[in-house]
Amino acid sequence: MTHSTRPFRKYVVSAALVTSIAFTPLVGTSVSAQSNAPSDNTATQVQSNLLTQGDRGQAVSSLQSELSQQGYYTYSVDGIYGPITKNAVMSFQADQGLAVDGIAGPRTKAALGSGSAATASSQTEPVAVDTSASAGNSEIVAAAENLLGIPYQYGGTTRAALDSSGFINETFEQVGVDVSRTHAGIWANNGTHVSSPSVGDVVFFEGTYDTAGPSHSGIYIGDNQMIHAGSGGVEVSNMGIDYWQNHYIGAKSIQ
Q1: Is 245 exposed, middle or buried, given 0-12, 13-18 or 19+ CB atoms closer than 10 A?
Q2: Which parts of the chain span the membrane according to its record (predicted)?
Q3: Which member of 91, 110, 137, 204 has the lowest number of beta carbons within 10 Å of its beta carbon?
Q4: Whether 160 and 205 share a structural domain
């Protein structure tokens, strides 16, 4: 009898261990999945509340309106989160002591909505704006922003790739204005010369290539910034650097 019961006991213990081992991973996986589910949903909700450069729509229009009310955005509300809107957000964030990243997240939106921010207009001298031309010029800037990121290619005239004058042509084609194909042609034939550029005007440069006369141009977007097709593609550049200042020859308003 002694010999017959020992194997039976070993079998019972072995079965209990197998049962425990078999169920442990299943229970662990279920608990892990349940604990991860809320954090995934939360991450999705937070991400959907962010507005960044490249976004479009009513949410961007609302953001621009709030920035405008507090004096940080002085252009047409167009629902396009371009470099101008990003710069306005960054200026607001800096004044509010927020992380300056140009992304309108929950904290930035909350600060805007609180109305507690001091308006930029109360801190700086008012800037004279030609409202009769601002609507048309803002359309030109929006058209230029639409082309940001398109690669550069010499002779390029389509959205697949653009050269510097091809970028100007494509920008004005979007707003229904025909301009000459070359920088020299635009300088000679299109628009009106102005003493200093306003937002949406075309700024011209010479001597950027081994050729006489105007050889490059861009769309002025304010604060010494322009959108143009450089070697890295359509991008925003600072006209205040020595290179552009040394080659600058003037600006034209083209409507």
Answers
A1: exposed
A2: none
A3: 110
A4: yes
Structure tokens at 242: 């020595």
Bridge pairing between strands 225-230 and 202-206:
unpaired
Who contacts 177 (Cβ-Cβ below 8 Å, separation ≥6)? 254, 255
- pLDDT of 158 reads 94
For residue 147, being part of any structural domain is answered with yes
List CB contacts of 223: < 8 A, sequence separation 6 or more: 87
Give the model confidence (pLDDT) of 81-119 as tens digits: 888 888 888 888 877 878 878 888 888 888 887 544 333
Question: Do both 222 and 155 map to the same domain?
Answer: yes
Nearest to 89 by CA among 248, 78, 76, 107: 107
Quick one: pLDDT band at residue 186, thresholds 50, 70, 90? very high
Do 152 and 246 belong together in one domain? yes
Expressed as residue numbers, the domain containing 189 is: 131-253
Phi, psi of 207 (to 5 degrees): 75, 15
